[in-house]
Amino acid sequence: MGDTPHRSADAGTGGTRVTEGHPWPAGASAHVAESPVSTGTPGGPGLGGGGALPTARRFGAERAFRGLTFAAGSFVLVVIAAIAVFLIAKAVPALRANTVNFWTYEGWSPNDPEPKFGIGALAFGTVLSSALALLMAVPVALGIALYLSHYAPRRLGTSLGFLIDLLAAVPSVVFGLWGRDYFSGPVGNLSIWLNEYFGWIPLFGGDGPYGASILLGALVLAIMVLPIITSLSREVFLQTPTANEEAALALGATRWEMIRTAVLPYGRPGIIAAVMLGLGRALGETIALAMTLGITFNISFNLIENGGNTIAANIANTFGEANETGRGALIASGLVLFAITLIVNITARAIIYRRREFTESAA
Amino acid sequence: MTTTLTSHRSRPPAQPPTLRARRLPKWLPPAIALGALLVAAAIVYGAGIGGPVLVVVVGALLYLAGLFAAAHAVEGRRSARNRTWSALIHSAFVLAVLPLASVVWTLFSKGLGRFDANFFLTSMNNIGARDPEGGAYHAIIGTLIQVGIAALITIPIGILCAIYIVEYGRGRFAFAIRFFVDVMTGIPSIVSGLFVLAFWVLVVSPYFSSTGRPGFSGFAAALALSVLMLPTVVRSTEEMLRLVPAPLREGAYALGVPKWKTILRVVLPTALPGIVTGVMLSIARAAGETAPVLLVAGGGAAINFNPFENNQSSLALFVYQQAGDASRYAPARAWTAALTLVALVLVLTIAAKLLARRNRLGR
Amino acid sequence: MAKRIDATNVTAYYGAFKAIENINITVEPKTVTALIGPSGCGKSTFLRSINRMHEVLPAARVEGSLTIDGQDIYDRDVDVTAVRRMIGMVFQRPNPFPTMSIYENVVAGLRLNGVRKKSLLDEAAEKALRSANLWDEVKDRLGKPGAGLSGGQQQRLCIARTIAVEPQVVLMDEPCSALDPISTLAIEDLMFQLKDKFTIIIVTHNMQQAARVSDRTAFFSIEKTGDPGRLIEYDNTQRIFSNPSQKKTEDYITGRFG
Fold this sequence. Notes:
The complex is a heterotrimer.
Chain A: H1 4-20, H2 26-34, H3 45-49, H4 55-97, E1 108-109, E2 116-117, H5 120-151, H6 154-168, H7 172-198, H8 214-238, H9 242-250, H10 255-284, H11 287-292, H12 311-318, H13 324-362
Antiparallel strand pairs in A: 1-2
Helix pairs in contact in A: 4-13, 5-6, 5-8, 5-10, 6-8, 7-8, 8-10, 9-10, 10-13, 12-13
Chain B: H1 2-6, H2 28-47, H3 52-74, H4 77-111, H5 117-121, H6 137-168, H7 171-185, H8 189-208, H9 218-243, H10 246-254, H11 259-287, H12 291-296, H13 315-323, H14 330-358
Chain C: E1 5-14, E2 17-27, E3 32-36, H1 43-50, E4 60-68, E5 71-72, H2 80-86, E6 87-90, H3 102-112, H4 118-131, H5 135-138, H6 151-164, E7 169-173, H7 181-194, E8 199-203, H8 207-213, E9 216-221, E10 230-236, H9 237-242, H10 247-253
Parallel strand pairs in C: 3-8, 3-9, 6-7, 7-8
Antiparallel strand pairs in C: 1-2, 1-4, 4-5, 9-10
C-alpha cells in the first residue's frame, strides 16, 4: 500500500508538468505583451516600472502564496534538523558523564553520582520483541488479508475489512491494558507449560516466575500490529488486476495457485511496505510494552521468564525519576531508537523502490 | 514450424486424458476433523500434558496433516495443496479473531462499569486510594485541548507543504522534502516526545513561564502530537491533490485565473473531502498517543484549562496512570477511560471513512 | 488434439439477470468459429461458460449442457482446472503477468502443472513462442519483463502462454480489439495456422475479421436491453455473409442495426 502514493505521484506529475510551461496563464501573457520586462524575474526591479498595471498585484499574491507554501515545505526540513540537533545536544553531556561503555553496559542507573547506563540490553530487547511480534503477526495477517480479499464472500469480506480498519485505529494503551490485565494469565500458563515440556530449549528455560515476559510483550505487540498489516495488505490484494487473476485461472490454476502466480507477486512491494510499517510501529511502541514487560537490564534469549525491556518502555518507566543526566541518557537512548527505525525505514524503501522499478519498467 | 510442433511427441502430456477427477467425499473433511480431535484428546490426556486448549491446537495440526494426506491420495498434489492452504488461511482468520474479540469484549464489559456521570464530570483531584469516585473530566479536557492545538498547528502547515510539493516544488529541494516527510512518518512517538522535551520544555519554556523554570504544559504535548501528525497530513493531502484531474486546472488557467487562485478555488475544494479524511485519521491517531503526553505534559489530577501553564493530563495518559495505580478502584477507571478513548477515536475514524466513501475523486 | 464442443440449451445468469438463453451450437474440431453480434448480446458470456470462467464472477451460474467430445464440462465430478487446461483462453486485453519475464509467462501454465525440468520447459517455451510467431522477436530477451513488449506482441505472448499447455480448444475473447491494424493482421495469420491443431472460437466485433478468419459464424442478438441474448443464426461464414437466412442477421451484417 505504501507504494501507491508513489505510483499515483508519478502518474500525477504529468498533471503538474502541464502547468509548468505557463506559470502565468492568460492574464499574465496579456501582461507580458504590455511590458516584456516582467518575463524576467517575477517581482524583480523591472516590475516596479509597470507597477501601475493591475496585474502587478496579482503577481504579488502569487509570489506571496508561493512563498508561503515554500516556507511550509522548508518547515519540515527545519523540524527534522531541530530534532537531530536538540536530541544530540541534550544527549552528549549525559554520554560524557557516563562512566561505563554506553554500547555494552547492561544496566541503567544514570541518576547516580557516578552515572552508569548502557543501551545494549535495551536495544536487544527492542529488536527481539519486535522481531518476535512480526514473526507471529505477519503470516496470520497475510492469511486474514487473503481470506478477506479472495476467500470470504464479498459482502462479508468488505464489512470485516472495515472492522479490521477500525481495530487498526485502536490506541496502543488499550492493548497494553488488556495485555496486562487479561492476557498475562493465559500467557503465564502457556509459559509454565512450555517450561515444563520444552525447558531444555534455552528459550523456554528458567525457574520462573513467568508471565510478564518478552513473550507476553511480543504477543501483545503482535495482536496490536495485526490489524495494521492486515488492513494494508488486504488493500493491496484487492488491487490485483482481475485480468491477471483470470489469466491464471484460465491456465487451469487452482485458487491457491492463482494466488501464488497472480496475487502475491503483484502485491509483494505492498506487502513489504505493510510489514515494515508494522515493524516501525512495533519498534517504537512504548506504552503497551511499558505495561506488559517485567523490566530487567540484561541480555537474555529467555522468552518466558519475567523480564525484558525496550528502549521506549524504559523511557516511559524511568522518566519520572530522572535527573538532568538521567534525561540526557534517556534522550541518548531515544536517538538510538530513532536510528534503528530510520535504518528499517530506509531499507524498506530501498527494497520497494528496486521492486517497483522492475514492475514499472514492465508496465 | 509444423515440424517443431510435431517433433516432440515424447514429453509427458500436460493434458489429462479425462476431465473427471476423483473427489474427496463431502463428509470426509469433517470426519477427519473429528478424528483429529479425538486422537489429539487421546494423546494429550493420555500423556497428561495439558488441557482442552492443547487438544484444539494438536487437533488442528493433525487435521491439516490428515486433510493433506487424504486429498493427496485421492485428488493429487495440486488439489491437496489448494485445500491445505485454504484451511490454513481460514484458521489464520479464526486465530486472529479470538484475541481481537477478547480485547473488544473486555473493553465493553469492563469499561461500562464506571461509565457514569460522575466519571465524566469530576477530575481525580483529592481522590485518595480508598475513594471509589473520581473521573476523567480533566483528562478529556486535556485530550481535546492538546489535539485541538495540534490540529490548528498541523493542518495549515501540512496542507501548504503538500501544495508546495505537488504544485510548485521541483528538483532536488522538493525531492528532499518528500524524502524527509517519509522519514518523519517513521519517527516513534516517544522520540517526538523527547524532542519536544529537549527543545520546548527544557530550553524554550523557561522564557515563557512565570516562574522562569522549565515546565510541563499541554501546549508542549500539542507540539509533540503535531510532529506526529504532520507527515500523515502532508502525505494524504499530497495524494489527494495529485488525484485532481489536470483538465480542471487547465480549464481554470484557460480562463485566466492565476495559479494561486486556481489552487485555492479549484484544486483544494475538489480535493477537500479526501484531505479532511486524512486530517481526521491523523487526529484520531494523535488522540490515542500516550508517550509524548507523558514526557512533556506530565499528567496530573486536577482540571487545567490553560495549555500554557502547569501539568495537563490526557485520556490515554489517564489510562496508563490509572493502570499503574495501586488503588483497587483504579482499574475500573482505567477501563472506562479506555472505552471513552476508543469511542472518541472510532467516531473520528468512522466519520473519516464514511466521508472517504463519498469522496468524488475516490481511489 | 482438437476436440468438438456441443452446447445444448445453455442458459447463463449473473445473479438474477439472465445473460443468454437456450444456446444450441456445435463446434467442429479444427475449425475457427466466430461469434458476432451487437454489444451486450452475450457472446462473451457464452464463450466464458465454455471453459467455466463464467462462474468465477460472484453469483454467476450456467444451466444446460456443454460437452467436449461427449464429456460433460459441468458434470459434478469434473475438475474445473482440468477443463480450463483443456480449453484455453485468450482475453480481450493482453494480460501477461506483470512480475514475470517473457519466458516465465510462457511456461507459467506448465509450471502449474508440475513440469519442473528445465530442458522440457525450454523446449516447450520455444515451441509455443514459435507457434505464436513471436520467437524471432523475443528470443534474445526471454528474461525481460513480458509487459515490456508492444501490445500486439503481448497478445501473442498470451497466446503462446495459452497454447504452451497444449489445450484442445482455444477461446479468444475479442483478442484484437486493443490492437493496431498490423498487430491484428499478425494475430489473424496466427489463427489460420493454429487451426491445424486447435479448435478455435473467437468473439469479435469486427465483421471483416469474422469473414476473414472463420469457417463458421454464429450470430447472437438481443431484443432489447435487459433481455437475454439468443443465437439467431449459425452457419458457414460464407453463407452468413452472403446469403443469411434470417432477416436480423442480414440487417446486422449490412449495418442496418446494431
